[in-house]
Amino acid sequence: MTAALSPASWATQGSSGIQMHLTQYIDGVQSSKPIFWGTVVHYQLDVTNATGAPSNSFSIVVPLPRDGIYVANSATCGTVPNCGATEKYSSHDNLIFGVTELDPGAGGTLAFDVTLRIGAQYQSITEVAHLFGDGCSAAVCSSNKATNHVLPRPVSLLGFPNNGLPSPQGSTIIYVLNVKNPSRHDQPDVTVNDSTPPGTNYIAGSATCLKSPGCTVNDAGGNIGYHFDDVPVHPGKKFKVQYSVQVAVPTGTITNTASWLGDLCSQGPCATNTVQQPVAGAAVTSTGGAISVSKSGSPASVEPGQKLTYTLSVANSSANPQNNVVVHDKVPVGTTYVTGSASCGHTGGCTSSESGGTVTFSLSSVPPNGNNIALTFSVTVDVAVGTTITNAGTWSGGGCTASTGCTTNVVDTPVGVATSPGGGSGGAAGDTGPVGGVTQIHTGLPWAGSKPYVLGLLGFGLLAIGGGLLWRELVGHRRRRAEVASS
Length: 487
Prior knowledge:
By secondary structure, the protein is mainly beta. It is 7% helix and 44% strand. The chain folds into four domains: 7-151, Immunoglobulin-like; 167-279, Immunoglobulin-like (Sandwich); 291-408, Immunoglobulin-like, CATH 2.60.40; 447-475. The protein has one helix at 451-486; strands at 18-26, 29-30, 35-36, 40-49, 55-63, 68-70, 83-89, 93-102, 107-116, 123-127, 130-133, 141-142, 146-151, 155-160, 172-179, 187-195, 200-202, 215-218, 223-231, 239-247, 252-261, 270-279, 291-298, 307-316, 322-330, 335-337, 350-355, 358-366, 372-381, 388-391, 394-396, 406-407, 411-414.
């Protein structure tokens, strides 16, 4: 994957013996085409010792772009020997690669992944690595800058309902595709395709262009295709299309990602964001009680040591408030409750607690007419790969007549090894856990985004403001003296 580089193309600052070159890849291809927000960018940093002597105990610090989210556990030393990678968080997120020794002429490739979260038009994302320690004769030696332009994703996918609450078998999911032109010229001949996601059945005739001009739709065989003659430049204007499916499975997750082709798509079919909808039956009493409680778990699969969050969704189908509803949930076998994680969110008249492995939510009143209340708590996974964590809660009040309480649906969460989009092992974005190896704390000048750097900028700004005020006072004083002298 790494392109061949001549020595002249290796960007260095000062007379560094360690040379570095940074490149970025999208979908496995090194490209200078615009990147769409939400895309995973894979960075590779080629490192070599260009001197005739070993380089010992140096660090490479990579301040992550402010408009990117680090893909947890994606940092790897790759083929660089005697190396460890560590995440470090201060006022800015940083990756630190520490190398204890690199022989003359030796080298390799470091790597990490970032997900872009930029939403504005024509932003840029810039990445650079800084070398500290042996092999760098200056205070800090930097790599080249890897820069690309970032655009809002031209085609985005929404699913309704997609509020984290489970959809029961037989319910309807409506998918809406927003098509927008973020470029500076018209985009003719744009095609969007979306296949009926596994676990659902396409509702015949539901695919529609709504009021999007120049749009035609084809839904043969449940494969929905939308063609747009032209998507003009019009900031803020979206072309909107939609179709519906019926949930055909009792449990699991419905996952949908659409694709599109057009002038802004430079690498074959480009993907939209992914929409996931949990599926489970809402538990109600046999006598048709007003309250229903359903449960979902996130993420859908976990790794040992990872956090798993449960959401208990409470709804009231009657026209009257339901008082004194109590929801219980035992911390599932193979997990440990995260202290203080039980939360009623912003729900008034609700208290949450945990005691003896049982989480309790007490609701003084549940509003009428289907209002959804989300109760959450988290656990840490203690069991090994290959097992399954099983959880079901109970609740009382609001029409539940069972003496032992009414049960929610069961949530099964498999324990396995997750894989990040960039190919490395990873969990949820933003995880602050270490990625192993040696931690090398740098010395020398602060890098952009660090606390000393920010404080330095702040101090410089205050000095500049103070200097401006002093100059204004001096000029005013001279003017007043001149006015007195002339009078």
